[in-house]
Design a protein that fits this description.
It is a single chain. Helix 1 packs parallel to helix 5. The protein has a five-stranded parallel β-sheet, sandwiched between helices. It has five helices and five strands. By secondary structure, the chain is of the alpha/beta class.
Length: about 140
């Protein structure tokens, strides 16, 4: 299984360590095409060694290639929102993970979309259970 993981990069890197844990769990179910999202050296400036055009084309290609999109949507990100919208338009199954944090609300465009499987979680143990339940059904 090919998994596209989406998490905030230019929208903020505060959750990078959480992305790393999520990716580690996802690797139990398949190949994560976007491991770099958790890279500790990646800042909110993004991948500065390549062009925006390159990133866009690569990521669209990965989205078309993947079997499922898993997104962490606690930190709002235009890029993650775009990736989710594109994934929906091409018929990819989507899981969105949301951690309730004081002062942040999940966009109604995500929470109100019946085509997106939204799961609230508090810690990585919750994420492990979400993945076990989801991936064992498919």
């Amino acid at each position: 299984m090919k998994i596209y993981f989406a998490g905030s990069i230019r929208g903020g890197r505060d959750d990078r360590h959480i992305y790393a844990s999520i990716i580690e769990e996802l690797q139990k179910y398949g190949v994560v095409l976007t491991e770099h999202v958790a890279d500790k050296n990646l800042t909110d400036q993004g991948e500065v060694e390549v062009t925006a055009d390159y990133i866009f084309k690569r990521d669209v290609s990965w989205l078309k290639e993947c079997d499922i999109v898993v997104s962490e949507v606690t930190t709002p990100s235009l890029g993650v929102g775009y990736e989710i919208g594109l994934a929906e338009s091409i018929g990819k199954p989507i899981i969105s993970l949301y951690r309730e944090v004081s002062g942040k609300s999940l966009s109604a465009m995500i929470s109100g979309n019946e085509k997106i499987n939204v799961y609230k979680y508090k810690n990585i143990e919750d994420v492990k259970l979400i993945f076990r339940n989801y991936f064992n059904k498919i």
